[in-house]
């Protein structure tokens, strides 16, 4: 059950007309009262003799009884409470009880308080109600509404239990401020997919992804087309910043600016500075791009996959402060991927980054500096430029999405263990968007590998199956029945041609993360082996295999890891 406290207003009659009117999309089918402070409150929805003005005068009576100078400028309080789509349809009596509980919890009308504020509840759909109240009590005093939003949320959590409704994860105060109703209506009028607040938050997050200094960060904001206003201290040091969309104007045609701290808690200038506290991010573990791999987006994606793997180890086995820092940096990687990926994956990656933003913040203090490799990966992605949707660019995009999926899954498990309900839910939602992005990115390169595997001789296929049986005997039957088996067989053949020991690669790839819960064992192994063996992700760059590598010329690439006991435990 989701409560939303809307902006306060100055005209009771305006809100009444909206609640009893047809709605912006003709969605108000049967508006009527289900409860009010007085059982005799007139209902313009069901009583043909009742008028909007009668209801307005009744609600406003305590306000109008005050001297004009003492009346609050914005005295109209508006709350909506919505049930989840899967919840049963509640009766009129149920909604009336829920409304009374909410106005009591917020301080609008505490139980037993005969001088409380006046209120009424309008229902015009099965799944939600609207509460309208005036913020002057019958005794002329103002209500105590301190922490009204938090108290409303807490009461709704209790209502969910009492009525056996869907349990909404409780918040912890680290979420970004939600758009106001005025901002949502403005975005709808202007045909925007998202409010200005949300667009700015996304753009600022992309600007900070991998940035190494304030100057670079502010330059990226301007390059993205935002209006940027900074405030300096007398010393000349930057005190803060605010941003606006060029076409988002107020009634006076002036830009509507938002300070970074009002977009999200971690986008304030002091919080952003902490990301730069160690200076320019280091390169992390030394990585040498393979000779056959092109420079640019593909190389950046390979390096990101490697940095992502190291981050998974930390989230699974490291200290909480280190894990929190890596999860925050993972958000930068997702922002960078969404900004630089090809059109056919960009939409899902954008939604993934947007969803994961909630998972990047918790009350666990992040230990900055340990996540430098991930921040450098985000920086590399940005500076390598847009990736093509084909060839090595497209295939390495599938490779890195596959690995980032594991990182997001590890983050979801970490948050769940810490009882961070909203963050865990956000990470799981992110994983679903990454599944869709992965399918879009992987279809073509895996199809090429599949066809190459189908063309392998039967003796060679049996040889690759034998390697598989030796390396992961407990999962061999599942792997051999998957559609991706031929793609894996082709990858093993490519590795053998390049001088590697296929069984050794398989064993190492399998021990890096357990595979029992993977959607596709073969997909995961394909990308791990092609990355570990420095094989082109795009199989069309490989010559057709002519012969098996000569005995004694096989080698296995071993990456330095923290030890077998440090391996993460879950898989996609």
UniProtKB/TrEMBL annotation:
Chain residue ranges for the region called Disordered: 170-197, 269-302, 540-572
Ranges of compositional bias, category Low complexity: 540-551
Biased composition (Basic and acidic residues): 180-197, 562-572
Protein name: Mobilization protein
